Q: What sequence folds into this?
């Protein structure tokens, strides 16, 4: 799927510099950043889900500890 990404001049210049420093294309840098973002947020959601399940499972114990 093709898409247009509109960046400010400052963002474009920073991206160009980063790509040059890493010896990659600007597209490769953007795709890597997107993959990292999506992975991190998926992991965060899983941690929140597991945390909520653990709070429910251990609610009685946690309530007693809070007394």
A:
């Amino acid at each position: 799927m093709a898409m247009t990404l509109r960046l400010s001049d400052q963002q474009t210049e920073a991206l160009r510099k980063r790509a040059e420093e890493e010896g990659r294309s600007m597209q490769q840098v953007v795709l890597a950043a997107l993959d990292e973002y999506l992975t991190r947020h998926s992991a965060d959601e899983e941690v929140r889900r597991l945390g909520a399940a653990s709070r429910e499972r251990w609610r009685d114990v946690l309530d007693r500890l809070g007394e």
User: Anything to note?
Assistant: The longest helix spans residues 26-57.
